[in-house]
Automatic annotation (TrEMBL):
Residues 1-29 form the signal peptide. Belongs to the peptidase S45 family. It holds the Pfam family Penicil_amidase. Transmembrane segments: none annotated. It comes from the Bacteria. This is Penicillin amidase. It comes from Gluconacetobacter sacchari DSM 12717. Keywords: Hydrolase, Signal, Zymogen.
Length: 706
C-alpha cells in the first residue's frame, strides 16, 4: 500500500530511477524505453501524472492507473451509475437515475458502441479499464468500501460513462428533458484563440478555461500528460474519460465551451386508446419490462420492475401534467466521440485536425483551436438534427409528435455549421454565447443559417468582456494575454456605474450617500481587497435578477448590430437609485458592512486551506468567473467557476501556463486536493512542465507500470 503523504518515499525511488531515465532535454518528453512492460508515470509535485508508454495501449493503461490513483472513488461511482446499477450499489436514492438510464438503453448501447470500435481502439478502452482495476487491486485500502462492488470495470464501462455524460447529462439529462422549457442553460466556459498577427512574438496562443461546478462528480477535471510513440499530449479532461478533452501538443491546441445545440427533441404524443396517433392512424407502443435491484438499509436486495413504452421517436415519458412524450436523441448511431477526441489530439496540422472534426461524432460543444502554423478556428460543433421547419424556440419546447415528417432523417453537415477560420481580426472567442460574435468585427450572420441552429442573442456581459479584451489591432505579449485572462473587472460596472452615481449624487438618504461614497472609491474589480464589490454585486442582483440575466432595466436593449456596447443606460434612474438604497441595507445584513473587503467573506476554502477569494459572477461581465455559494458560517465559497485553465503559445520553446483550481486529486488524505488554491488566491498561474527534463526536476514519485 502507498499512503499519503509520499514524500518519505521519494528518496528511495529517485536515486535508482532517475539515473536510468532517458532524458529528452530539448523539445517535448520522449517515450520511455523498455524498462517496464507498460512504461511509467512520473508524478510531479502538483500530483500531475506524466505517463510514458511504449505503446498507445500502454498510454491508456497508464492513464487509467493514474485516474484511479487520483480519483478512484469518483471514477468507480461514475461507472457504477453508468451501468444503471447505482441503486444496487448505493440504495433507493439512486432509483431515478437507474430508471432513466435503463429506459434510454444506455448500457446496452454502450455494449454496441464498444463492439463498433476498431480492434486497436477497443484494446485502448480495455487497457484504460485494466489500469483502473490493477491500481485498485494493488492499493485496496485506497478504495472506499461503498464503491468496491463496482470492480472490476471494463472497456464497456468506459464507453458507457462517456455515453451517459455526453448524451444523457449534457444533451438529455432527466431534469432538462422533463422541464418546460428544458433547462438548457449553456453553463460557463471561456476560450480564446489568438493569431500570430495579434501577438508580439508572432506565435498563436490558445486559452482553455472551462467553468463547471466544483462539487459535481462527473464535472471534475483532471490534468495529465500522455506520452507514447509519436505523441506527447498535455491537458485536462473530466474524470472517467480516457482521453483529454482540453489538450495541446507542440503542433495543435484545442478547447471546448458548452453550447446550446439542440441534440434532443421531445415529441408530444396524441393518445389513441392503448396507442398513439401518427400520420393519421393509430400506432401501438412497443414495450419492454425492465428491472433493477435496490440495496436495502439492511444490505439485502429488492428487485423492482417497470414497463417502458417506446414510440417511433424513442422512449416514452410523462410531462408534469401526465401527457406522454417521446424522447429523440441525435447521434446514438455515432459511436466515435472518444476516438474523435483522441485523433484531434494526434493531429499535426489544421488539415488533419479538420478531418477529425468532419466526422461529427462529438454531440455538442464549441471547439476553439490554434496551431503551430498560425491557424485559428471557432466551430459551433455538434450532432444537430436537420429540420425542414421551426426555429430554436420551437425545437426547444414540446414538438407535436403526430407527423413522422418531423422526425429527423439527417444531421446538419460539418460544412453547414457556423465556423470562423483565420479571421482578419486575428482572434476567435467564445464564452458560451451564440456563434455570431465569435470574432469582431462579425463575420457570421444568423440569416445564413437555419433558425434552429442557435438563438440570435443576447450576448452575455462575460462574452462581451471576452470580446472587448481582444478586439482591436494591438499586438499582445504572452504576459499581457495572461493578465487579461486574470482580469476581475466587471463590465457591468463600466457600463452602468457612471450613470448610477450621477443619478444618486443629489439623493439625501443616508444609505444612498454611504453607497455612493463606497462605489466612487471602488475600481470596479472583484479583488480580495476590493471595498465596494459586495455592494455592487448586491445592487446588480436587484437590478438584473438573481442570475444577473434580466436586461429589462436598461435604457438601450441589446442589439446584434452593436453587440459589445449594449445593453446600456438606466431605463429608470430613480428606480436604480431606490435599488441602491435597498442594496445598502441588504449588503449590511449579509456581510456586516457595505465596504467589507471582498475577500474577507469570499473564500477559497478546501480542507485546511482557507484563502481570500477574487473573481465573481460571469453575468456581471467578470471574465475570471467564480459563482459564489450562499453565506455559511461567516463565509461563502465557490459553487462553480474557474476549474482548469491553460494558456499556451506556440513559441520555441513552447510557453505554457495553467491551473487546476481545486487540485488534481479527490482521494482522502491527498495533499493535491487544495495545493493550487494559493495560485487562485494570488491571481497567478503555474508553469506547466512539458519536457521530460522539466518534469524530472519536480518529481514527487514514480510508478513503474507492468
Amino acid at each position: 500500500m502507498r499512503c499519503f503523504p509520499r514524500r518519505l518515499k521519494i528518496a528511495l525511488y529517485l536515486g535508482a530511477a532517475l539515473s536510468s531515465l532517458a532524458v529528452g532535454s530539448q523539445g517535448w518528453a520522449a517515450p520511455a524505453t523498455e524498462r517496464a512492460d507498460q512504461g511509467e508515470i512520473l508524478w510531479d509535485t502538483f500530483g500531475v501524472p506524466h505517463v510514458y508508454a511504449r505503446t498507445e495501449a500502454g498510454a491508456f493503461y497508464g492513464f487509467g492507473w493514474a485516474q484511479a490513483h487520483s480519483h478512484a472513488n469518483i471514477v468507480l461511482r461514475l461507472y457504477g451509475t453508468a451501468r444503471g446499477r447505482a441503486a444496487e450499489y448505493w440504495g433507493a436514492k439512486e432509483e431515478d437515475s437507474d430508471r432513466w438510464l435503463l429506459a434510454n438503453g444506455v448500457y446496452d448501447r454502450a455494449r454496441q458502441w464498444y463492439a463498433w470500435q476498431t480492434p486497436d481502439f477497443r484494446k485502448d478502452m480495455d487497457e484504460f479499464a485494466r489500469g483502473i482495476n490493477d491500481y485498485a487491486a494493488r492499493h485496496p485500502d485506497e478504495i472506499a468500501s461503498d464503491v468496491k462492488p463496482v470492480l472490476p470495470v471494463s472497456g464497456v464501462d468506459v464507453i458507457a460513462h462517456a455515453l451517459r455524460l455526453m448524451n444523457y447529462v449534457y444533451i438529455a439529462a432527466e431534469q432538462k428533458m422533463l422541464g418546460d422549457p428544458p433547462a438548457r442553460k449553456a453553463g460557463g466556459s471561456n476560450a480564446w484563440a489568438i493569431a500570430p498577427s495579434r501577438t508580439t512574438d508572432g506565435h498563436a496562443v490558445l486559452l482553455a478555461n472551462p467553468h463547471l461546478p466544483w462539487g459535481t462528480a462527473f464535472f471534475t477535471y483532471y490534468e495529465a500528460q500522455l506520452n507514447g510513440p509519436g505523441f506527447s499530449i498535455y491537458g485536462a479532461t473530466q474524470v472517467g474519460l480516457p482521453v483529454l478533452r482540453f489538450a495541446f501538443t507542440r503542433d495543435v491546441a484545442f478547447t471546448n465551451t458548452v453550447n446550446t445545440i439542440l441534440g434532443a427533441v421531445r415529441y408530444t404524443l396524441t393518445p389513441d386508446g392503448d396507442g398513439y396517433r401518427l400520420d393519421g392512424r393509430k400506432h401501438a407502443f412497443t414495450t419492454k419490462t425492465l428491472s433493477y435491484k435496490v440495496r436495502q438499509p439492511d444490505g439485502t436486495m429488492a428487485t423492482k420492475s417497470f414497463v417502458q413504452e417506446y414510440a417511433v421517436q424513442g422512449p416514452v415519458f410523462r410531462q408534469a401534467d401526465g401527457r406522454p412524450f417521446a424522447l429523440y436523441v441525435a447521434g446514438l448511431d455515432r459511436p466515435g466521440m472518444i476516438r474523435q477526441y483522441w485523433d484531434m489530439a494526434l493531429a499535426h496540422n489544421f488539415d488533419q485536425f479538420q478531418a477529425a472534426l468532419k466526422r461529427l461524432q462529438i454531440p455538442m460543444f464549441n471547439i476553439v483551436y490554434a496551431d503551430h502554423d498560425g491557424h485559428i478556428m471557432y466551430l459551433d460543433n455538434g450532432i444537430l438534427p436537420k429540420h425542414d421547419e421551426g426555429d430554436f424556440t420551437y425545437w426547444n419546447g414540446f414538438v407535436p409528435g403526430d407527423r413522422s415528417s418531423t422526425i429527423p432523417r439527417n444531421i446538419v453537415a460539418y460544412e453547414d455549421l457556423p465556423k470562423v477560420i483565420d479571421p482578419p481580426s486575428g482572434f476567435v472567442q467564445n464564452a458560451n454565447d451564440p456563434p455570431w460574435v465569435s470574432t469582431y468585427p462579425r463575420v457570421l450572420y444568423p440569416e445564413a443559417y437555419p433558425a434552429y441552429v442557435a438563438v440570435t442573442g443576447p450576448m452575455s456581459f462575460r462574452a462581451q468582456m471576452s470580446t472587448t479584451m481582444l478586439a482591436g489591432t494591438d499586438r499582445m505579449s504572452f504576459d499581457e494575454i495572461v493578465s487579461r485572462k486574470l482580469n476581475t473587472h466587471a463590465l457591468l460596472a463600466q457600463r452602468v456605474l457612471p450613470d448610477l452615481l450621477a443619478a444618486a449624487a443629489s439623493d439625501q438618504r443616508r444609505d444612498v450617500k454611504d453607497a455612493v461614497r463606497v462605489l466612487r472609491a471602488w475600481d470596479g474589480a472583484d479583488n480580495a481587497d476590493s471595498r465596494g464589490a459586495l455592494l455592487f454585486e448586491t445592487w446588480a442582483r436587484l437590478f438584473m435578477g438573481p442570475k444577473f440575466a434580466d436586461f429589462g432595466n436598461f435604457a438601450t436593449p441589446w442589439s446584434l448590430d452593436d453587440p459589445i456596447h449594449t445593453p446600456a443606460g438606466l431605463k429608470s434612474p430613480a428606480q436604480a437609485v431606490d435599488l441602491l438604497a435597498r442594496a445598502a441595507v441588504e449588503t449590511r445584513r449579509l456581510y456586516g458592512a457595505i465596504d467589507r473587503p471582498f475577500g474577507e467573506v469570499s473564500r477559497f476554502h478546501l480542507n485546511d486551506v482557507n484563502l481570500p477569494g477574487n473573481g465573481g459572477f460571469g453575468n456581471t461581465g467578470i471574465f475570471r468567473t467564480i459563482t459564489w455559494g450562499p453565506m455559511k458560517d461567516g463565509e461563502r465559497t465557490p459553487f462553480h467557476g474557474e476549474t482548469w485553465v491553460s494558456l499556451v503559445s506556440f513559441s520555441t520553446p513552447m510557453k505554457a501556463k495553467g491551473l487546476l483550481s481545486y487540485g488534481n486529486s479527490s482521494q482522502p488524505g491527498s495533499p493535491h486536493r487544495s495545493d493550487q488554491l494559493s495560485y487562485l488566491s494570488s491571481k497567478t498561474l503555474r508553469d506547466l512542465w512539458l519536457t521530460r527534463h522539466e518534469v524530472e526536476k519536480h518529481v514527487e514519485y514514480i510508478d513503474q507500470l507492468h
